[in-house]
Amino acid sequence: MNIKNSVKVASENSKYFKSLIFKDTISSTQTIAKEELKNYKDEFLVAALTQTDGVGRFKRNWESPNDKGFYGSFVFRPNVSREKLIEFNLFIALAITKTIESFIDYDIKIKWPNDIYIEGKKVCGFLTEMIKEKEQLSIICGIGINLFNERSEVEKKESIERFANDTFNVKDFVNDLIHNIEKYYELFLSKDFKSIRNEYISYSVVLGNRIKITTPSEQFYAKAIDIDDNGILVVINDDGYIKKVISADIEE
């Protein structure tokens, strides 16, 4: 089964995302999800075969070769504070990791907070935004997963197909992805991050390493030493000061 039909079938069988907007070509699933917020009261999913203006974190371009990946924006309607957004990211990162893990025979790692790597190659990234309209709070989570091989201009980027074992099937993968996202979303609603903290840390690729950290206000090098109970990255900089990082671009 192809990607398009796989997404449609998985949506029909899902608990939260039966409302699906699917386009062969779209500017950006994230952009359309924002535009469609007013037309839906509950959760919905925007997905496409290709994006002409796909966007990642910090407004980076996200390559979206036609019919080669999962490109989708999930719209959630939680009743949570803005401070919970960082925890939401880490729950979703585990959901994606668990999905990929069942289809590959290689170690999988999470680069805090939003990137998934296999053997040092990036296979997934996601962007999370919180939007409030009147009394409605929405979290829009745009996920890009490279499923099939395609020459990339981005160094260290790879596809699931490159590492997949004999069990890889796109229909099963997309179905498991949506199921796990729903599962970990429900955990997010009912549990604190500390309930999955040890599991998340077991996949971390940054802890113990010296990393380059770029925030909207500064750029510095530091050693990642912990992820606290709120999902915040704890680092010690070159001057020996401990700092907490809530949102940043991380480079090794």
From TrEMBL:
<dbReference type="GO" id="GO:0004077">
    <property type="term" value="F:biotin--[biotin carboxyl-carrier protein] ligase activity"/>
</dbReference>
<dbReference type="InterPro" id="IPR008988">
    <property type="entry name" value="Transcriptional_repressor_C"/>
</dbReference>
<keyword id="KW-0547">Nucleotide-binding</keyword>
<dbReference type="GO" id="GO:0005524">
    <property type="term" value="F:ATP binding"/>
</dbReference>
<feature type="domain" description="BPL/LPL catalytic">
    <location>
        <begin position="11"/>
        <end position="189"/>
    </location>
</feature>
<dbReference type="GO" id="GO:0009249">
    <property type="term" value="P:protein lipoylation"/>
</dbReference>
<keyword id="KW-0067">ATP-binding</keyword>
<dbReference type="GO" id="GO:0005737">
    <property type="term" value="C:cytoplasm"/>
</dbReference>
<dbReference type="InterPro" id="IPR004143">
    <property type="entry name" value="BPL_LPL_catalytic"/>
</dbReference>
<dbReference type="InterPro" id="IPR045864">
    <property type="entry name" value="aa-tRNA-synth_II/BPL/LPL"/>
</dbReference>
<dbReference type="InterPro" id="IPR003142">
    <property type="entry name" value="BPL_C"/>
</dbReference>
<dbReference type="Pfam" id="PF03099">
    <property type="entry name" value="BPL_LplA_LipB"/>
</dbReference>
<keyword id="KW-0092">Biotin</keyword>
<dbReference type="Pfam" id="PF02237">
    <property type="entry name" value="BPL_C"/>
</dbReference>
<protein>
    <recommendedName>
        <fullName>biotin--[biotin carboxyl-carrier protein] ligase</fullName>
        <ecNumber>6.3.4.15</ecNumber>
    </recommendedName>
</protein>
<dbReference type="GO" id="GO:0016740">
    <property type="term" value="F:transferase activity"/>
</dbReference>
<dbReference type="InterPro" id="IPR004408">
    <property type="entry name" value="Biotin_CoA_COase_ligase"/>
</dbReference>
<keyword id="KW-0436">Ligase</keyword>
